[in-house]
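Table S2 (continued). Query chain:
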Amino acid sequence: MTEELFREDAALHECEATVLAIDEHGIVLDRTVFYPLGGGQAGDTGELTGPEGRRIEIVDTRKHKERPGDIAHVPAPGLDVSWLQPGTRVSVRIDAGRRLAHMRFHTATHLLCALVPHPVDGCSITAGYARLDFHMTDPLDKDELTAGIARLVAAAQPVRHRWIGEDELDANPQLVRSMSVQPPRGLGRIRVLEIEGVDLQPCGGTHVANTAQVGAVVVTKIEKKSARTRRVVLGFAPDQLLNFSAR
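Corresponding output:
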């Protein structure tokens, strides 16, 4: 299984790794800082650097379809990766700006969950926007939600993760807010994200270490997707975009 370094340290951008396999799904490493598509969050991009400085651009990261527990790093189309062999040592580096955007937006969606106490039945987190679909019928106000997020950001609360047993989750089913994505089972433990005094729920994504690092995130749109679904779309304030530096 690929060692998932990003689970414990989302701010880690580089590592050294050994190639385990190369196939039509991508390049499998023994360890990685690349987050694979999942839980609504987009996969990381970046590059691998091998012997003699040879580089491979990675345009997506996915969970391997045929090797449970392994992660496939997808090279750019048309690249020659034939020089890679199992056992080759490579330097692994993600696009740090893209990762920071994912971290900011993903943490912002947890702040939004604290403001909208309804089940979530859809989620998408990219470098350009994030959205949550709430199972609800009540109207939502864009300005009120933007102000609420700003208040929670300004509170500068710590953002931490920890692991709980599956039995603890079973005893506290209210921790699961998502209707569409359930925590993975079978490993004996579940990763939960805690924003002190704000939110606690299972989550495997990448996050900033303090709500202050979310920066200026605003609600750009609220849509009625169905009779019982309200979609909230988040964006960065126009003057920030990807230029925000983590504090």
